[in-house]
Amino acid sequence: MIIDAVDVRRRYGETVALDGVSFSVDEGEIFALIGPNGAGKTTLVRALSGTTDAEGTVSVFGGSPAEVARDRIGLLPQEFTPADRLTAGELVAYYAGLYDESRDPESVLADVGLTDSADTFYENLSGGQKRRVCVGTALVNDPELLMLDEPTTGIDPTGRRDLWELIEGLANGGTTVVLTTHYMEEAEELADRVGLLADGELVALGSPSELIDRYGGESRLVIEAEDDEAAVDALTDAGYELISEDRRVAVPAEATEIPSVVEALAESGVVYEGLAWRQPTLEDVYIALTGTDAGSADAIASGGVA
Ligand SMILES: Nc1ncnc2c1ncn2[C@@H]1O[C@H](COP(=O)(O)OP(=O)(O)OP(=O)(O)O)[C@@H](O)[C@H]1O
């Protein structure tokens, strides 16, 4: 076990940032922390990396985080602004120079997709390229434990996937990774296990598929009708129970049930522009457990579709 956290608590004055969080992370695991703004993710990463004190027990490599040899950990803080007037290459080389042993800066730049921007000043890089440099600085010491607070924020979809591949490769080589993200797809695709924080508490913990099975709800058919109310009436008359789906009309349906839903719509003469069948995702888990879904079946049924 690389990380063992038991009943971790942290307050900032009256604000409770962490309210008794317990979990552990094994070697080579990718562990993603998700949760709304202010849920406590950054505070937890800071407690694990020893940059803030916390009550409870936090053990990293069997000891106190603050005492772990710094070359064993790579940390990407959420807010990190390196010197503007150094190039991407100089910055990575600078951070590499802080360790007795470090990786070749050029290979780190290649890993984060910045070979072609090595000579560009940090201030002249795009937002996503800047974030890549920051990720690079966390990799220079070839750490055993990598903690990445929102590593891919601002990075374009292709670059994000490249970073997922990089992180997966590191984990396959034995690196343990803890990351935070607001991208549910990132947590679902990348993480072995996910912890969902809300108001300082870990409200769900498990592999993405376990969480989806448990909290994600049913597969659904989403109907983009010309007249939502007509669709709601037709489906209700046919005995379907409407479910909430991003302010669209939707019913629970397995793939084999799609024809009968289509038939019910056709029989009532409902015109639709789109039909989409989809299985639950980690985003559904997030919405179910944090209650941040703006739309609801009730709103649709009462004609309140935005
Ligand atoms: N240095 C600080 N001083 C005072 N309050 C803080 C401090 N850092 C965090 N907080 C508060 O602690 C709570 C948890 O914040 P934290 O940054 O850990 O959340 P988060 O889940 O990382 O949020 P986000 O998704 O917005 O990054 C919030 O209410 C925040 O306002």
Automatic annotation (TrEMBL):
Domain ABC transporter: 3-224
Keywords, ordered alphabetically: ATP-binding, Nucleotide-binding, Transport
Molecular function in Gene Ontology: ATP binding; ATP hydrolysis activity
Domain of life: Archaea
SUPFAM superfamilies recorded: P-loop containing nucleoside triphosphate hydrolases
Matches recorded under CDD domains: ABC_DR_subfamily_A
Keyword Nucleotide-binding among record annotations: yes
Entry keyword annotation includes ATP-binding: yes
Similarity comment text for this entry: Belongs to the ABC transporter superfamily.
Protein's name in the database: ABC transporter ATP-binding protein
Organism, as annotated: Natronomonas salsuginis
Upper taxonomic lineage: Archaea, Methanobacteriati, Methanobacteriota, Stenosarchaea group, Halobacteria
